[in-house]
User: Which sequence fits this backbone?
């Protein structure tokens, strides 16, 4: 073993990584708890912060993708609901016309001469 090396530095680094949430906290932990010098803690701090930033960026990208998929699903559901509502409205309108024509036949008016406006007036 070379003079001045400490074989437990990896273990110390791992221990501090478990309890820190930033590169600054990691450096503080290494310096205060394990007496690392600033010249040794600095590179570890930078590497840890880069790792945390990468994890955060990947998490945000995944979250954005999930939200985009959920929004697309909701948009599809909304489009189907609108389509169904329009179909119900068209059916109701057709039923209304069909009933109006039937009313015309009932009162003896031909379909060609049937005016739904006059039928509406008679229904009131």
Assistant:
């Amino acid at each position: 073993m070379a003079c001045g090396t400490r074989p437990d530095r990896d273990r110390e680094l791992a221990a501090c990584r478990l309890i820190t949430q930033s590169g600054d906290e990691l450096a503080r932990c290494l310096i205060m708890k394990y007496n690392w010098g600033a010249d040794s803690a600095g590179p570890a701090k930078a590497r840890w912060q880069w790792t945390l930033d990468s994890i955060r960026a990947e998490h945000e990208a995944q979250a954005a993708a999930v939200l985009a998929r959920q929004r697309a699903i909701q948009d599809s559901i909304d489009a189907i609901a609108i389509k169904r509502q329009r179909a119900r409205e068209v059916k109701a309108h057709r039923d209304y016309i069909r009933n109006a024509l039937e009313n015309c036949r009932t009162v003896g008016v031909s379909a060609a001469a049937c005016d739904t406006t006059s039928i509406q007036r008679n229904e009131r």
About this structure: The helical segments are 9-19, 23-34, 38-106, 116-123. The chain has one domain: 9-123. Residues 9-123 form one domain. DSSP finds four helices and no strands in the chain.
